Amino acid sequence: MSEPTNVNALFLGPKAENYPFFREMLNYLMDDHAQWRRHFHPDDAPVVTGEEQARPDFLATLQQTREALIELAGNLQIHSTPWFSPRYLGHMNADTLLAANLGYMLTLLYNPNNCAYEGSPATTALEIEVGRHLAALMGYDPQKAWGHITSGGTVANYEAIWMARNLKSFPFAIRAILPDLVAGLDDWQLLNLPTARILDLADRAKEAGLFEEARRHSVRGTGMTGRNLGKILVPQSKHYSWTKAADIFGIGQENLISVPVQDDYRMDVAALKRTIDRLAADRSPILAVVAVCGTTEEGAVDKIHEIVRLRDRYEDRGVSFYLHIDAAYGGYARSLFLDEDGGFMGYNEVGRRHSRQGVLDPDTDWLSTDVYESFKAMPEVDSITVDPHKLGYVPYAAGAVVARDRRIIDLISFFAAYVFEKTDDNPMLLGSYIMEGSKAGAAVAAVWMAHRVVPLNVTGYGRIIGYSIEGAYRFYHSLLAAGPIEVGGRTFEVIPLARPDINIVDYAFHERGNPSLEEMNRLNQAIYAECSYKSGPIYTNDFITSKTALTREEYGETPGAFVAKFGLRSGEWEALGSIYVLRSCILTPYLMGHTTYEAYWANFMGAMGRAISRICEGA
Ligand SMILES: *Cc1c(COP(=O)(O)O)cnc(C)c1O
Predict the structure, then answer these.
(1) How many domains does the chain have?
(2) CATH label of the domain that carries residue 410
(3) According to DSSP H, which parts of 421-533 are helical?
(4) How far is the CA of 392 from the centre of ligand 1 (A)?
(5) Contact 326 CB / ligand 1 (< 6 Å)
(6) How far is CA 37 from CA 44, 47, 105, 118, in A?
(7) When you count CB atoms within 10 A of the terminal residue's CB, does the N or C end of the chain come out lower?
(8) Which residue range(s) make up the domain with 55?
(9) Average pLDDT for consecutive 10-residue bins of the chain (619 residues)?
(10) Is residue 329 within 6 Å of ligand 1 at its C-beta?
């Protein structure tokens, strides 16, 4: 076996510790690229001569570039957020992988466009390759699956709905073109065919040479006007891209149904079942069910195994829906569970491997059976969104969508995709299968470099994300055990929202004796202001967090249980319906880094105490 991945060698580092290596690689890639230019028809005369390069207007133009760059650098330094620092405990950001950054920078010089093979022979092939990596990460058969890089999770979710919508309408197209194939099936039955069955029908249409005509009779030809293709069921914790998707795809907000979450912010599967039962009783079709692996606000992992079981049971009873997982955030965490051969490890083996690696402490009570079973069940769903630019530690813009059965892309492509399916090296006109047009091959190369250097299993990404979970758990337990902060005779305490399923921790501060939720919200808003760009240049902040409001509008009465922990006057949640919480996505592997975790925590609480005392003085 090769040497295990050393996480500290993977990033530039909070103090640019690995800068000498980075600079060496930058020199290499610039030199290498310059050679590439020079060796293209070496006998061609240079366009820019030495004489010209000495002219004053030439030098002045270079000076303009220099000044613009210096201006930009200053702007970036003042206004950028130091994602790289372990003091950054905010959004889904951290240091990005050296390998990915170098891959991006090198490829940028070649500027490939992955819309068409012609513009990107190298990086189109890499996009297909990383699509397979991600399919394998999700437990799909990479030969049968389809995956590619999008600009982000938002567009990946759009592509999933695009596939689901066109799939749902396809049986009606078959009835119009090849009625014998669906003889005896009524509208309700056509709306409830399982995914694999519909894709088999598509195969029959291809064999009959009628696929193009069938596509014209599906929703892509007829539009959404004619038929009700059904509701989309999402948890209350959904990302707002689903709200936008309902609009863009002509589904309508009234057909986007929010299923309640429980106190742990996972979708309430019993409530999902009740919703499906109610819809089925009304003969109201379900276009898709979306589960979330790593909710944006809480990092909660929906019980995917239970939702898959539900899907299977309903399918036996003639009620079928497309099942998608929005794992934009949590998808790469599946590497925590995979061994070197890509096998999904047994429950006890996961803990053993991580403690043997010295990453996750054996006493860390992270891995619940629900989280384990959820990740295990992921290959059972139709498609998955997974963002390299989140837990893949890759620079923007890199999301991805993977589908279990690649035949499904023929339902969205504007090209006879299936004609080219047979061989790997056939020109792939990506632009005809995807939402976007021109797109950066550099982003794809960054993902490829990341996967090349960091194995998508317990030894690679499993280590980085393992460190981040270890940090998140220590932070969570510290919050649970935190003593009060005393400021000028006033006493403040902090309570975490929920036990994290992966590495996002939400929490709120409260002044002991304060009866008002509104007052408590004001305190946390003020703390957020102290820990964000709002308090002036972020470069001078001790810590940086993000925040969110958990509102009745989004979450129903669920946040009331958290509000009740603060001992406010009764009826406060009922009256206000909104609680403001601080949110720390702990992607950094460095929380235990420079000194010790205990010192880190003491530093954090010290900074919170100073922030609160500034707030008290200001008020
Ligand atoms: C971040 C996120 C998205 C959107 O991804 P972008 O890359 O920001 O477009 C969608 N769903 C979930 C659960 C997310 O966390």
Answers:
(1) 3
(2) 3.40.640.10
(3) 441-453, 461-481, 517-530
(4) 13
(5) yes
(6) 11, 12, 16, 19
(7) N
(8) 48-78
(9) 82 97 98 97 95 97 98 95 95 97 98 89 93 98 96 98 96 96 97 98 96 92 85 97 95 96 97 98 97 97 98 97 98 97 96 91 91 98 98 98 96 66 58 90 98 97 96 96 95 97 97 97 97 87 96 96 96 97 96 81 95 90
(10) yes
